[in-house]
Design a protein that fits this description.
Number of domains of chain B: 2
Oligomer: heterodimer
CATH superfamily of the largest domain in chain B: Response regulator
Number of helices of chain A: 14
Shape of chain B: elongated
Distance between the termini of chain B: 67 Å
Structural class of chain B: alpha/beta
Shape of chain A: elongated
Radius of gyration of chain B: 24 Å
Number of helices of chain B: 10
CATH architecture of the largest domain in chain B: 3-Layer(aba) Sandwich
């Protein structure tokens, strides 16, 4: 107890000085005793008094200097090293704080304590303007209360949150940012501060947007090109083959009328066979390139046809439900129709390759306000690491197609297990307008 | 003499068909059209007994041409000639009013036969089409009302049966209220039910609960 108190007393620089003064007094007293009582009587008369005068401070220096070193100099040196380290760390922190990313530090009550220069650059609010307020001053209204409630829930649970937020700067412009919030914990585990780091991702968003547009454009161009080629093959090659077939038919008729030429009929017969083969190939190529049935009979008919093909190829039962049999089925616009058809094809490929399903159902609904296509199977559903499965090439392609049409795509589990994919497309305004005109 | 109108955008095919038809001795080609619009105009102006129609022509979709002709002259038999196989088009087009469907692969003699058949007011059904039609019949005969529902319809049926409102279901499934209402009436129609109360009763009677 006393030891502890002494340590407290002498641990401080002031205490060290007291201790050193005491030590000097004690040392001086002992040295005087030594000189006057022990040394002088023994060697006294033979040595001059000047010697004794010098011996006294000499002893004092020899005894006291190590103590001064231990008690005062060494602690100071240690402190200096520590200070230098801290300074370095602080410099790093300061540089980090003034990074390209906006940084805002709040207290536990979400009151802003400090912001960096990038914060000011991005939001337009200076440090003085921001301090004391809450980051709520940046809210754009694009996220609802539910969004922030969720955010705080996650923060409380994980002490960490990151996500995309749309905020409003001082000028009133709304911009997207990628925000990461980390809770700083005190010694007893309570939250003392929140640190928010964010960067303006407008450019990235614009880039993504452009990339999406480009992808959409390439996809549309590809489909157009395929349609054109299939149309051309159908018109030219298909027509020619049909005409050729009719010519051979007439030739056969003429040859059979004459006994001398009758043996040639065999050749005509094999010519007809060859033409039929060529027609078959042509037809297959055309169907693979572009499902003309889509243009001629509409999406439901095309889905049903694809279902039939799929069933023949894989043996998996396939059925389409659609209100499309009605005569008043309004025509989808071509981009939507071909994209939904391609998504359906992609989904069927996935079903055949991964699901192990024995049955797949497709359903098409076209309302006044939205178009819904549902494809469900009774397979094993999405695998464990379904995130990666969702990002696999086929799924990404589907997502891109849906995004291009401003729709959404959802994956869930139908009653009884398996995988259900739902595509929801808004019915575009231009449709309604066209309908009215 | 049976009067035929040929609608096909290929002159070469029209020419070939014309020769084959006229060689039969019982038929005569009275008009040729090279597009859907042209075909519609000529049918209005020229008397004919059968239309031989190519399903894919450049200006109008074939099914629109077919529906239009059928609406204007319901008695006029229309025989479809197409490069596409029966499984894609035949049944739908016959449902839409065509008297028959044949692919361009069919033997030209078959075309003559089919034309004569439809001219007499009969339908021309090729063996392939007959098989497709046969497969369509009888599939749903012995099922209970709820078994003919699609997956989505069944899901909405179950939600309705558990006393959820249309807007609650719309929220759950991320679909619009309108869509769910449409589904609801389709479910009721398919199951021959009149209202939600009957639907719930049906679900209880058949032990169909989520």
């Amino acid at each position: 107890m006393i030891k502890h108190k002494l340590k407290n007393l002498f641990g401080t620089p002031r205490g060290a000085i007291y201790l050193i003064a005491l030590l000097i007094m004690a040392a001086e007293f002992l040295i005087m005793l030594l000189i006057e009582i022990v040394l002088k009587p023994i060697f006294g008369p033979n040595i001059s008094s000047t010697f004794w005068d010098f011996l006294d401070p000499f002893f004092l220096i020899v005894i006291v200097t190590p103590w001064i070193y231990v008690l005062a100099v060494r602690p100071l040196e240690k402190q200096q090293v520590m200070l230098r380290q801290q300074f370095n760390e602080l410099s790093i922190t300061a540089v980090t704080f003034e990074s390209m990313e906006g940084v805002v530090v709040t207290d536990a009550n979400n009151k802003i304590l400090r912001v960096n220069r990038s914060f000011t650059e991005i939001t337009g609010y200076s440090n003085e303007e921001a301090v004391g307020k809450t980051p709520g001053m940046l809210h754009s209204g694009r996220q609802d209360k539910e969004f922030y409630r969720n955010m705080w829930q996650v923060l409380e649970r994980d002490r960490f949150w990151s996500g995309e937020v749309w905020n409003r700067n001082k000028r009133g412009d709304i911009y997207p940012e990628w925000l990461t919030i980390t809770a700083v914990l005190g010694t007893e585990g309570q939250v003392t501060n929140y640190v928010g780091i964010f960067s303006d991702i407008s450019e990235r968003k614009a880039g993504e947007q452009q990339l999406r547009k480009l992808t959409a454009h390439i996809q549309t161009a590809r489909e157009e090109e395929k349609t054109r080629i299939s149309r051309e093959i159908h018109d030219d090659l298909g027509g020619t083959l049909t005409a050729l077939k009719m010519e051979t038919y007439r030739l056969a008729g003429k040859l059979s009328g004459n006994e001398q030429t009758a043996p040639l009929l065999e050749h005509v017969e094999s010519m007809t066979q060859l033409i039929d083969n060529a027609v078959g190939v042509t037809r297959r190529v055309i169907s693979d390139l572009h499902p003309t049935i889509l243009d001629d009979l509409g999406l439901v008919a095309a889905l049903e046809w694809q279902c039939g093909q799929f069933n023949k190829l894989t043996g998996i039962a396939c059925e389409v439900f659609g209100a499309g049999d009605k005569d008043d089925e309004c025509k989808l616009d071509k981009t939507a129709a071909i994209n939904l058809f391609r998504i359906f094809q992609e989904a069927l490929t996935n079903v055949a390759q991964h699901s192990g399903a024995t049955r797949v159902n497709a359903e098409f609904h076209q309302g006044d306000d939205e178009i819904v296509m549902t494809i469900s199977d009774n397979g094993r559903g999405l695998p464990e690491g379904h995130v990666s499965a969702q990002n696999s090439y086929g799924m990404r392609g589907m997502r891109e197609r849906v995004e291009q049409l401003d729709g959404q795509i959802l994956f869930d589990k139908p009653p009884g297990g398996g995988l259900r994919l739902t595509v929801i497309l808004p019915v575009a305004d231009r449709h309604n307008k066209e309908g009215k005109i | 003499m049976i009067r035929i109108l040929i609608a096909d955008d290929h002159a070469i095919i029209r020419h070939g068909l014309k020769q084959i038809i006229e060689e039969s001795g019982k038929m005569r080609v009275v008009a040729e059209a090279d597009s859907g619009i042209d075909a519609l105009r000529k049918i209005r102006g020229i008397e004919c007994d059968v239309v031989l129609l190519d399903i894919s022509m450049p200006d109008m979709s074939g099914i629109d041409v077919l529906k239009q002709i059928h609406a204007e002259s319901p008695q006029l038999p229309i025989l479809i000639l197409s490069i596409y196989p029966e499984d894609q088009y035949a049944v739908r087009l016959i449902k839409a009013g065509a008297a028959g469907y044949m692919t361009k692969e069919s033997a030209p003699s078959e075309v003559v036969k089919a034309l004569l058949r439809v001219a007499n007011g009969n339908k021309y059904i090729s063996p392939v089409v007959a098989e497709i039609l046969a497969n369509e019949i009888g599939a749903d005969e012995e099922k209970l009302p709820h078994q003919i529902l699609s997956d989505r319809e069944y899901q909405i049926f179950l939600l309705l049966a558990s006393a959820k409102t249309v807007s609650e279901i719309a929220d759950t499934l991320a679909l619009s209220v309108k869509t769910i209402s449409t589904y609801r009436s389709r479910v009721l129609e398919k199951m021959h039910l009149n209202n939600n109360a009957e639907l719930m009763r049906y679900a209880i009677d058949n032990h169909l609960e989520q």
